[in-house]
Structures are given as C-alpha cells and as structure tokens.
Amino acid sequence: MNGPAIKHGDHRDRLRSPRMRRRRTFAMGMAALGAFGLVAGQLVRFGMMPGPSVSLAAAKPIARGWARPDIADRRGRLLATDIAAPSVFADPALLVDVDEAIEFLRPIFPEIKWREMRGRLEDRRRRFVWIKRGITPKLAQRIYNLGLPGIAFRNELRRVYPAGNTTAHVIGYTDIDNRGRSGIEKFIDDVIGIDATDGAVRSRRAPVRLTLDLGIQHVLRGELAAGQARYKAKAAAGIVMDVNTGAIVAAASLPDFNPNEADEALRAERLDRLTQGRYELGSVFKALTVATALDLRLADANKRYDTRTPLKAGKYTIRDSHPASRWLSVEEIFVHSSNVGAALIGMDIGRNHMKAYLDTLGLTEKMDTAMGPLTQPKLPAHWQDVHTMTMSYGHGIAVTPLQFAAASAALVNGGRRVYPRFVEVAAERPGEQVLAGDVSREMRRLFRLNVTSRSGTGRYAAVPGYHVGGKTGTADQPRDARYTDGRVISSFLGMFPAGNPKYLTYVLLFEPQPTAASNGKISASRTAAPLTARIIKRAAPMLGIAPSYPDSDS
Amino acid sequence: MRRVVTSVVWALTILSVFALYAIKYDTRQLEVRVRGLERMVDRTTGEIAVLQAEWGHLTQPDRIERLARRHLGYGPILPDQFATLDEVILASRLAKQALPR
C-alpha cells in the first residue's frame, strides 16, 4: 500500500480551521465598519452643509429703487438723506369695487388725474398700478385703515433735503426713482455709486462730504436774496472760496428752488448762474490784465499811459465813464477802472501773451467740477487786436462766474493756480505756479487800495477790521451783439484779509435797477460792493477770522 | 467581549448621529435669530435716519435764524462784538480803576 490517499476535504478543512474563521470574521467586521464609516461620513457631510438661506426670488423686480449715500457739509451737517417712505399701489385683479376705491382715495389725493387712473384700475389684466409714491407714514396708515381690498403698500427710499433751498443748486435733485438729475446728486450717480435695492434698505456707503459750510451758505444766500430785493435785480449769485485750496465754502445762485419739491427746478429761471450761465464780466477782468502785465515785466504800478482820449479800434470806440484829463499810472487805471487804460495795457501785452496767460489761469478750456461740467468759455472766433483790447476790460470773452473766481485766486494766493472743488478730498494737490510771488503781493496791494482809496470803486466794500480788497465790474450785457439797452451785471471780486488772504468772494447782481439804496446807480460800486461788505461782515467771524485793527494797513 | 465592543460602538454611533443633528438644528435656530436681529437693525437704522432728517430740518439755519430773531431778539454777530482775552483783561482792569473807593 502507498502513502495516505489525498483527502479532498483538506481545503475545506483548512478553510474551516479556527484561524481562517477568525480571519473571515475580522475581514467581515472591517467591511461592516467601513460601510458604517461611509454612512457616518456622509451624515457628517450633510450635517455640515449650511442650511437653506431664505432668498427672496422675485421673477421680475417690480419696483427697483436706488439707495444713495448721505450728503453732508464740511462739518458733517446733513444736507441730503434717504428715508423709507411707503408708496401705495393697487392690484386691479384684486380690486373688488373700483368706484368705491376711487371714492375713498380721491379726497386723499386730489392732485391725481382720476380719469386716467380709473382706466388703469379697471384693467383686470394688470397686477400693479402705482397710486402715489413716497407718502407719509400717517397717510399710509389712514389708507390702510380704509380696509380697501387690492390696495397695498411697498416701502421705497425717498430723498429728503433737510436744508431746503439753502444748498439747492449745488446739491441738485433726484427723480421719483431716487436717481440723481443734477449737481452733486448726479455726481453720486456717476462717480460715487448708488446701489439697487428691492425694498427700502439704505445705502451702506459713507456720506459724501462737501466743502460747503452750511452756516456760510446760509449767510451768502440770505444776503444775496436781500440784495436782489434791495437793488431790484433780476437775479443774484455769489461764491465764497478758500483762496489757497480752491475749496468752495459757499455757492448760491438766485432764483433757486426747493429740492424737496423738485418739479420747479425744470423752469429755465432756476438756472445755476455760477456754473451754467456764461457772461461777459467786464471790469473785473482788469485784474487779470494788470497781473499779466506785471508778470511779463512790461509794466509796474507806476508806468503811465495816455488815457485822456477815447480809443478807436476798428468800428468800436473804447471810452471811460469818467475820463481823466491826464496820463494815468497802472495803479490809477486799476483803482479808477479805466477802460482806455486797460486796453492800452492789453495792447502792450499783445494777443499771444494774453492767450497764454488766459490758458494758464484756466479761462480758455472747459472746466469740470463735481457739480458737472461748467459751460465752456466763449472767446473770439477770429481773435484780432480789437479783441485783445476789449478782453482787457472784460468784453469779448464770456465765462462762467465760478471759472473766473477760480482763476482770480491765483492773483492773490502767491501765484498758484487753484482747482475749485465741492467735495472734500483726503489730500490737497497744490496747483502749479502761474504768476510770480511778488506779482501776487502787488495785486493784493492794488486790490486793497481799491477799497481804502477815497475814490476807489471798491470803497463801499470796506468792512472795519477785515482788510477787504477787491475789484468792481459793471458789465453791459449785449443783446444781439449790441450793448445799448442798459442792462448790466454788477459784480465785485473780493478777498480778505488783504495782507494774507484766506478767502475770495465773487458776488454778482444781474440787471440791478436804480434804487434809493444804490443812490440811483446800477454800478457795482454801489450795489455788488456794499453787498459783499454785508456778506463778509457776517461770514468772516464764522470762518474763524477775528477782526484786526488798526484798519489802515501799510 | 466582542459583543460588548459591538454594542458600545453601536451605541456611540447612534448617540453621535443624534448629537450631530441636535447641533445642526440649534445652529439653524440661531441663524433664524440672527436674521431676525438683522431685520431689526435695518428697521432701526431706517428709524434713526428719519430722526436725523428731522433733526437736520429743525436745526436748519433758516429756521433757527427765524426763531432766534422772533423769540430771542438775536441778530447776526458783528465784528465789533469780538474781543481778545487781552482786551477783556485790560477792560476789567480799567473798570476796577474807575470804581470809586
């Protein structure tokens, strides 16, 4: 017999051995653990997912509003803000009785054209008809209490202007959807940014800080209004500007409007004359002419010109209102405001230099501000010698008052150009030097002389303690290229304190009439100059400038 | 021994599932509360805005000037109403000298 036969049960026995059994159990246990682990892992994953967030999904936004940042003055006083105001609408599909609804709503809103509204309300296919937007919460409560089915409310943001008329032109206004239409409001739309909102959620953006000071603005506007009435002028405008930085502390133009009721703003007479009106400003331009001549070293204050006879230039004759019977020095030409003298100085300067200086002072190109672009200056199309002469005393060139005021700042601030601005900036950018420092000092002296001199045209602009200096301008206004109808713009360019000016004022009266207050005159000397004095008298203490005596300075 | 381990593991699994879902629902409740608070903040911010607009309107210079003139008889400050500290001290000294002894 051979060895033991192969037992077929060996494999199965092997597999049944206790060790294999243990190994099987272990493997099954691990598999089970793995499966459970997978399930547990999935559970943890699901547990860590963020819960479903409630999101309002409107298929089409019904009424999209815009949230705007606040506007504040330089001290943080509120000038414009959004508040949530209920707006009432109707759902014609849910309106049970249109007649009843109209009967109840007509006395509350008499200004609505109910015939049109009825047509809209009776159209049952419409689901949304505005009745009135931006009403007071009290009124909304009253309507709610009527219990009319189909009438509901939505909160919308509405712009309110706590300062009312005072800052009207600068800030501008918004339309019913809270979009800016003019002024700083438009600047916010275009530059700062507004945010779409489906309800009445206010903007989270920081308030826009303006350079305006509401207190000074109030003084300026109040005095302009009083002056407009006193001198029976058609309109008035004024600006107070920091002479070193170009920051505009106050800017007003009358007539203006109440931005809380913006429909009035569309009428033409609510034009902002400081930025949109373009005028020949007249003799105030003599300051630029004299400064140019001084800077070119063509003349000093004592150089004399023959101003005895009127000047013929082409078909025009240039004459003085009070001609002198002798030669006048540059100083005298300035103080007595001689047109002939200015024209002669202009001829010395010549066309090329005059254009160059107008360029560097910023009077030939379009100027942009936060209030929007200013109306572009108008210069002669074909500039000839006669134009150089007339431009020397402010005719033949038309600019906006703001642009002119900004250019004049360089005359008294040491000779640096300033860029006027309405919005505060983090860091100042000093302008380029356009005139020599000693020219600026001389101009300050001449401006001051104009006011202290007994026959100076600016003598009524004097304010005790404040060393006011300045220049008058009584500009005939052309109609159809003729200057015959006696309408003038009387303006006064002022600055104080003359030794080291901090602020510049430019005040204009449009078409003043002879009155007792002006001694029967319409010249700037008797209208815009004393008006400037009133403004400076009230505004200077508020600007932190204490009066300093003695008044007569060296 | 094996049975004990298995039971313990089972127990832990079930407990951890419960704990997990308890935490998840607590978190959801907190989120609801947070959203409620955010809505309240928005509403209150809106109310504050209305009050600030009211304040701005009540303190606008036009109105204050009108009220000051009418009820207090005030007018604008004029330059000769200013004095420096030195001037005040000098004035009071002069006044003392002028008093009869």
Helix content of chain A: 25-40%
Note the gap between the termini of chain B. 115 Å
- DSSP strand count of chain A: 18
**Structural class by sheet pairing and helices of chain B:** mainly alpha
Bin the strand percentage of chain B. under 5%
How does the helix and strand content of chain A classify structurally? alpha+beta
Could you tell me the mean pLDDT of chain A? 89
The portion of residues assigned to helices of chain B is over 70%
Percent range for β-strand residues of chain A:
15-25%
Total beta strand runs of chain B: 0
Low-confidence stretches of chain A: none
Main β-sheet description of chain B: none
Q: Give the chain pair forming the largest contact, with residue counts.
A: A-B, 39 and 33 residues
Integer-rounded radius of gyration of chain B: 37 Å
Quaternary organization: heterodimer
What summary fits the major beta sheet of chain A? 5 strands, mixed
**N-end to C-end Cα span of chain A:** 150 Å
Topology:
The complex is a heterodimer of chains A (554) and B (101).
Chain A (H helix, E strand, L loop, with lengths): L8 H8 L1 H31 L16 E3 L3 E2 L5 E13 L7 H8 L8 H9 L6 E4 L4 H10 L4 E10 L7 H4 L11 H10 L2 E3 L10 E2 L4 H17 L4 E8 L5 E7 L31 H10 L8 E2 L5 E3 L2 E3 L9 E2 H7 L2 H22 L7 E2 L2 E2 L11 H8 L8 H12 L24 H16 L16 E8 L11 E9 L6 E8 L17 H15 L12
Parallel strand pairs in A: 2-7
Antiparallel strand pairs in A: 1-6, 2-3, 3-4, 3-5, 8-9, 8-18, 10-13, 11-12, 14-15, 16-17, 17-18
Chain B lengths: L1 H57 L2 H12 L12 H14 L3
Properties at a glance:
A: alpha+beta, 18 strands, B: 101 residues, mainly alpha, 3 helices, elongated
Descriptive report:
The complex is a heterodimer of chains A (554) and B (101). Chain A is an alpha+beta fold. Chain A has helices at residues 9-16, 18-48, 98-105, 114-122, 137-146, 168-171, 183-192, 214-230, 286-295, 330-336, 339-360, 385-392, 401-412, 437-452, 528-542, and strands at 65-67, 71-72, 78-90, 129-132, 151-160, 195-197, 208-209, 235-242, 248-254, 304-305, 311-313, 316-318, 328-329, 368-369, 372-373, 469-476, 488-496, 503-510. In chain A, the strands form six sheets. In chain A, strands 2, 3, 4, 5 and 7 form a five-stranded mixed beta sheet that branches. Chain A has a five-stranded antiparallel beta sheet with strand order 9-8-18-17-16, sandwiched between helices. Chain A has a two-stranded antiparallel sheet with strand order 1-6. The longest helix of chain A is centred in the first third of the chain and has 31 residues, at 18-48. The model of chain A has no long low-confidence stretch (mean pLDDT 89). With 101 residues, chain B is an all-alpha fold. Chain B starts with a helix and ends with a helix. In chain B, 5% of the residues are buried. The interface between A and B is large, with 39 and 33 residues.
